[in-house]
Every structure is written in structure tokens, then in C-alpha cells.
């Protein structure tokens, strides 16, 4: 398969996309507002698979050339968020997403397949409603830009087959959480650590943070999730590709451990 460094973006199609990301909290007065394309289920087309609230369908605005762009809708309603999902729903979402992502990768039709989630105004997303994206890339292999050290870090906690850490060499900076799964049977534990990271970012981060990305990587036999809090991106990274790491990562790792993994602390989806 031919290999490229750049994806080609169709800006004409991009200009037609609906944008609801600016909405921070759903307005109860707009409960039946059908302006969100993912709430309006009857209008969905090109559905490839569904299980209860989960729907995998083709992206209506496939702006990336030489790709297959899919959307995974996670919930019936806009007013839910991964950090407060019940454990049952959380596990369902992550299992379903990973299964479909790997199915597409195993089809052999793509150079590589990327799987990720945007949340909030600084995440690069356009739709507020909880969803993820799976994109098969015909000409680009994302693994060429990935290094093992991207996922090394100060260990927050671990369980058999899963490690939860805070990057010592972030890809961008300053704080990046990683969940490294080496035993697929422990995928529910991976989902729990992802939820903890997202909950921490949205509730306890030093600076008010309302945006994050969740990225998935398949590296040999490992599945890795990176949770990246999003702010305006550092110019030092944008202009010079120099990532930055905070001198507070050990302190933050300890804070996460104390809040979530000390005996008697509430689970992330318990209202605080
Ligand atoms: Zn919606």
C-alpha cells in the first residue's frame, strides 16, 4: 500500500457540517430540539451496526479523502458524558468501539485505522453529542508517527494486564494520561481507568478544563488509550514540534491516586 504523510481535507464539504460543539450544557427548554443530528435518530442513514444506544454509521460529511469515516454515537441524548456513564454503559461503549475498530483494521483494506473521541470546544470536534470516530486510512499509517515512549509515565495505579500512568514524555504536553492494556480480557478495567482520567481532567484539573481527546492505538499486542486535556495548543509545539512536560507530574499522579484509588473513595461516576 502506498504511504503518505498528509491526509487531504475537503474544505468545501467541511464548510457544510453542522456545528453544535459550542453548546456547553444542553438547554432543557430545547429538550426536543432536533438540531442535533445524533439526537434525531429517525434521520440517521448508512447505519452499519447498532446495540441499544450505540450506533455505528458512516459520517455524513466525509471530509477526508482516501478514507472510510465512521461515527460511533454513544448515547440516546446529548446530556450525557463519558465521565458520568454507569459502569455498565461505559464498558459497553469501550467494548463495542474497540471491537468495531479492530474489525475494520483486520479487514486489511486500510494502511491503518484511527479511533478517537473529541469532547468540548478545544477538542477539534464539531458536534456536542457524545460520539467517537473510527477512520480507515488508505494511504497513511499513523504508527509511523508513534513511539513507545509516548505511553511511558509515572504509574498512577495498575491491575493485572493494565497500567494507568501520566506521561513522562508527552506527545504534545503538558499532562497526558495513558492506559496501556496488554491483556484484552481486562478491557473493562481499561475503560474504568479511562473514565477516571476523563473525570479528573473535567473536575480537578488545575486550570478549568472543558475539553479533552481520547485516542486509541494498537501497537503490536497492546491496546493503548491516551487521554489528552485540551487547551489552546502551545506555540512551541506548533511552531517547532517541541513537546513540553510539567514538573508537577509526580504530584498530579499522587493526587489522582489519592482521589480515586484510596480505600473508601467514591468511584468516578459517583456525583461529588
Ligand atoms: Zn444530541
Automatic annotation (TrEMBL):
Residues 20-140, 144-261 form the DUF4931 domain. InterPro entries: DUF4931, DUF4931_C, GalT_short, HIT-like_sf. Transmembrane segments: none annotated. This is DUF4931 domain-containing protein.
